[in-house]
Amino acid sequence: MLKRKRIRNKGKAQLSRYFKEFKQGDKISIVRDLSYNFPIPGRFQGTTGTVLNKRGESYVIELKDMNKKKTVILQAVHLKKLKDMEIKGKKIVEREK
Questions:
Q1: Which helix (H) or strand (E) holds 27?
Q2: Beta-ladder partners of 13
Q3: pLDDT by residue (tens digit) across 22-38?
Q4: How many helices and strands (H and E) does the chain possess?
Q5: Could you give the angle at the alpha carbon of 28 between the alpha carbons of 54 and 95, nearest 5°?
Q6: Phi-psi region of 42 (alpha: psi -120 to 50; beta: other; left: phi over 0)
Q7: Global pTM?
Q8: For the chain, what is the radius of gyration of the CA atoms?
Q9: Buried residues in 59-73 as b, exposed as e (16+ CB within 10 A)
Q10: Which residue in 9, 12, 39, 81 has a CA-CA distance of 20 to 30 Å to 88?
Q11: 36-74, pLDDT tens digit by residue?
Q12: CA neighbor of 59 nearest in space, from 25, 90, 33
């Protein structure tokens, strides 16, 4: 679980992270940004889900917690887009750089 930022990344978040755009159905990963003071439960750190829609400046995300589907509303600062790849008919999810 993240408790502090690395020394090179300290300070405010980059503006480009605030204005990220996601489409409906995009695969994302939840990564808390510690410079933004908004409580996010620690159990959602690192989980993956899909974007359902946009609500104001936040995104509604559907993810699986244990065996239940849950919906979470988060801002774009805390989300990273995942890139889909297919190798021999199997779907592999890889992080986009």
A1: strand 27-30
A2: none
A3: 999 999 999 888 777 77
A4: 1, 6
A5: 145
A6: alpha
A7: 0.76
A8: 14
A9: bbbebeeeeeeeebe
A10: 81
A11: 777 777 788 889 999 999 999 899 999 998 889 999 999
A12: 25
